[in-house]
Amino acid sequence: MAVKTYLFDCDNTLVLSEELAFEGCADLLNEICAAKGVSPPPSFTGGKLITEFVGQNFRGMLASLQQRYGFPLAADEADGYVVREEDVVIARLRSGLAPCVGVETQLKRLQQAPERPTLAVVSSSALRRLRASLETVGFDRFFAADQVYSAATSLPTPTSKPDPAVYLHALEQLGAQAASSVAVEDSRSGTLSAVRAGIPVIGYVGPYPADRQDSMAAVLREAGARVVIRHWDEFPQAVAEIEAA
């Protein structure tokens, strides 16, 4: 079946944002743990957070830490931390964000295709952060403002991947069918989210260090990715494989 709808994760799929973002929120998470009396202190770094929480949003990380360390966090307190994290991360993104290598060529190709497929962004990150990322690298010209979906912001109840809710919401809003859509994801949680929504997934491991790409490709396949690519040049062939299946 021909693909009519392309659903792209944003962080480390369209833009090289994960390292910048996790560095930005590490200090805040350490501050929260200190304020809650976590001992010994976890001393998070951006690298540690990427390894543990890639694909999750900040609210999801807070929930995981509450469960791990057993500290309470009132809803309004969590909301305040989420806003602070967005501010810190957006400032970092605006100053140093770059697109993933090769993706712009593929977005242009899809935008100019005679069949004019629908292009959308489906992410765990907050909508304000997504728009800042797309604007910074000029990708807002590929994605209509109302076709950017956030698990943290677009849903009645905020959530995070691997919950499929944000993908199901995107399909409903776009009037798209899962069977004629494809998602592109770089993380296990994102892949699980799309798979649980019934959407075929192309895994993307390009932003990972060379010595981790094989292991991450295996992780994404185990999570349900139909095809895994290392560079965006491989994207058309990956789509063709899914259409032929």
TrEMBL record:
GO molecular function: metal ion binding; phosphatase activity
Stored InterPro entries: Beta-PGM-like, HAD-like_sf, HAD-SF_hydro_IA, HAD_sf, PGP-like_dom2
A Pfam family annotated for this UniProt entry: Hydrolase
Cofactor: Mg(2+)
Keywords: Carbohydrate metabolism, Hydrolase, Magnesium, Metal-binding
SUPFAM superfamilies: HAD-like
Family matches, as PANTHER family: 6-PHOSPHOGLUCONATE PHOSPHATASE (PTHR46193), HEXITOL PHOSPHATASE B (PTHR46193:SF18)
Protein name (record): HAD superfamily hydrolase
Organism encoding this protein: Grosmannia clavigera (strain kw1407 / UAMH 11150)
Lineage: Eukaryota, Fungi, Dikarya, Ascomycota, Pezizomycotina
